[in-house]
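Run log, item B.
One chain of 374 residues. Sequence copied directly from the ordering sheet:
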Amino acid sequence: MTTEKPTFELTAQEGEARAGLLRTTHGEVRTPVFMPVGTKASVKSVDPDELRALGAEIVLANSYHLHFRPGEELVEELGGLHRFMGWSGPMLTDSGGFQVFSLRDTLLAVDEEGVTFRSVYDGEAARFTPELAAEIQCKLGADIAMCLDVCPPAGAPRSELERAVELTTTWARRQRNAPRADGQLLFGIVQGGTDEGLRRRSAEELAELEFDGYALGGLSVGEERPPMLAATGFSAPLLPADQPRYFMGIGDPEGVLEVIERGIDMFDCVLPTRTARTGSALTWEGRINLRNARFARDQRPLEEDCDCPACRRFSRAYLRHLVNQQELLGLRLLSLHNLRFLIELVSGAREAIVRGEFTPYKRDALARLASTAA
């Protein structure tokens, strides 16, 4: 008799830092892992084969935007999100809750049943419920779906945080019972701001529902870095140790290393590609702005030991020329480099955890990033 392998298993741990393996319908994901963001079923300017070559193991897409354009019914009709965007690997879709609550000017009403808001596309009133969030993600067919949650802004009063925790649990319970795509995993989202008591309550309530994984939501939404990291530090150990832990929305090199140290397995952010579109690159010199005149005759690659397409063939001087002339190739090459830099940083962290050397790895990486930051 064979026993089904668990969805997630730890392979190594150093302090709170963890290395693991997440199994999904479309393949395995080694953690910790950075997930490139393909908001509208596309990681901006990067095709799926390039993502694979960069080392990406899982990508994220946005249910809010795909619901309105082109619509989950069309995606389902065309074979699901994997076939639609040509990505054969694991994929996660968010519920749309963050977009609804972060675009507060469009928010109309929040109640026990769901949230009403104005679409950013046409201004028409729309409504999300846990059941609709489940239906959208079921039709999109991602490997991992997220529960609809209430995401308060930074600095929200405790009463608002309490209400967010209460509604997030209520909605999670309903979405937990809604239909899903075959093999689709469902993650609950812990809320509570930087309040330790509320985070504990939220984590305990969601753990009782036995989700396939758990996310920390409502952080990196405008609060200062020290309280954010403190909240991560006391929240992550509250989550089930045998399930993946996901920090929603962090992607700077320093922040990624900090949350890995505090026990986070998965994270996503638009930062690598958004930074590229401003003409900046992530390097061991820190974040460099290639519009700067000091790169006009710089014949070095962005990184000497980087194997991305930008570094293998082109100089900083040429990349600066592309950026200043608004050539699309420049933005593409910087996107490829920034993604590769972050993926490689996280891969190095994972290997260091396995060796039992994450502490010196993090220390040395932060020292390099800080020593010549531009």
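Observations after the first pass:
- The chain has 15 helices and 16 strands.
- The chain has a mean pLDDT of 96.
Flagged for discussion on Thursday.
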